[in-house]
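Deviations from the work plan: none for this task. Representative record:
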Amino acid sequence: MTCPMTDKIFKKREFGGFLRALKKTYEVLVPFKEQGFYRFKPIADGEGADLRFTNTRLSPKSFVLPQSERMFEFTVDEKIEDAHILKEATRAYPPTAIVGIRPCDAKAMRLVDVNFNNPEFRDPWWVTRLNSITLVGLGCTEPCSTCFCTSVNCGPFHEEGLDVLLFDLEEYLLARPLTEKGKGLLQSGGVERDADEGSRNKAHKLRREAEQRISSHVPTDKLGQKNVNDLFDAPFWDDVAFACINCGTCTFLCPTCWCFDIQDEVIRAEGDRIRNWDSCMFPLFTLHASGHNPRAEKLQRVRQRFMHKLKYYVDKYKNGVACVGCGRCVRYCPVNIDIREVFRLMNEL
Amino acid sequence: MNRYVDEIRAVARKILEEKAVDLIIGFKKGSIPMMTEPVLIRDAAETGQLYWDSFCFMNLATYLPKREGKIGIIAKGCDSRNIAVHIVENQVKREQLYIIGVPCEGMVDRRKLCSLVGDKEVREIAESDGDITVRGEGLEHTLKKADYLQDNCIRCMHRNPVLYDAIAGDLVEERKDPDPYDDVREIEAMAWDERWEFFSTLIKDCTRCYACRNACPLCYCPTCFVDESGPQWVGKSIDPTDTMIFHILRAYHCAGRCTDCGACEQACPVDIKVRFFTRRLNRDVFDLYGCEAGLSIEERPPLDTYRPDDYDEFIR
């Protein structure tokens, strides 16, 4: 039998001590500002974390799905008996805590999980790594004007995918364990004090206020009923795609883009089979060995990205859109292609 | 900056109505502050969308190669030089183009503004007479635009379009004073190993998204060398050697052609100052051949031509 989850509380100035305590059990990743933007990094000795960030520039998906990952190794030296035989590359899965992850990025991992971990396919590395990670979310009290999480089944204090959710109550941090894993982490961090009702009310208010502060909204209600071919042949794709330069910024920053490519790299006789992030924005993504490319044109590639997120995923998994409204693509697309507008165009077609 | 908007719209409307062009490539106002979106307009009634401010940092010449028909295009100094490069390199014909030149006082680097306001979000921008006002929740700063220009604009010597059919606004005075290659000299002052360290650190965060390449008007190859798959020339992982090969080769492909428009740097999602790769090459081309890219549609690019009076003996 498991005990009910009880909200815990600790002083914010004890946060450094909390992280140091976690380090005994976990590899601890926290947000740091370095060379101009925030990123998750292993916590260094004697250092705390900087929780003033809005969000990290890149989503933390790379900790579960690394941009480049050695899957197998092999030798092509035929004097050796097992030449050309793939052997799984050794790798470690130390217990890891990502502390300060935003709720949208944690929810994104659940959305991606349906692709890598389903009755049909089970990606062992994704699954093992995700299991080894404990996600300690930090609710967003100051969401950006480009955040639209509340429109896509998410929110600034959304709990799905998280093991613990932290509420910043200024002097205190309220820690809400959401899973057994999360409860264990709080114990490891020495967080034992139960939150009083006043603090829980404050946390509730904080969440409500943050949700109201989300100023950007997108419609999604009709996407599921739309005819896929109508959307595919919609007249607006020309306009949406014109500015696109087909770079991978949107896909690489996106917490729910999961596509990869597999490559063999051989140096002398030793080879690695590597999987790398790939992007549907790149022509090479769909180039066939025959030379034919079913998505040779920019329009086709741009359409694919939005159709995948806002229609194919919706239809296939009945799990909502493959977007958590983090707004990264809106903020960093160099030519200002705004997914919020594409939501409107597709939903209102 | 906005004094240009009315004139851009008026010229665009006129040339579309008169069917002097089939379409206009320009900018429209962005959906977020400090952003603009390249836009293609075919209908004179839509020309009201055209917009201009200090955040038109993309180079519209990027949208020209192999485009057919008569094209109206908005061009600041560097865009016009890249249009000239395209004409010389047979990517578009001069007769196809109606260039609406926009004299440029420099584009504002949105990242410099963002770093000024720390981790607050910029929610509104207003420009007037060389000032720029940045507003957000609990913040308001009025700043001199000149202090927040893109690095390339600080050193720009060709703010006026070099090639145009109509001009929006008045020509601006070209600056004589900038020291165009002070940044290059700083790197040259480093020891070899320091330089290697500098460039390795520079690209440490590169995600191989190729935004720098794709934002660049020069990169119009049907298949880029990093995308060749049979045979494959460069590894696709984020191995530092492969990433460095991409950046160095990309820069070399731009030698003698780069106008230092800065679109590469502005497009980078992880703030890499990729111009450091092209800057030295630009200076070498200037020092060795007295050439700056895109100033004329009559001259061949310095690296694909030969002159009997070349100063190097081996080639004479």
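The first helix of chain A runs from residue 15 to 23.
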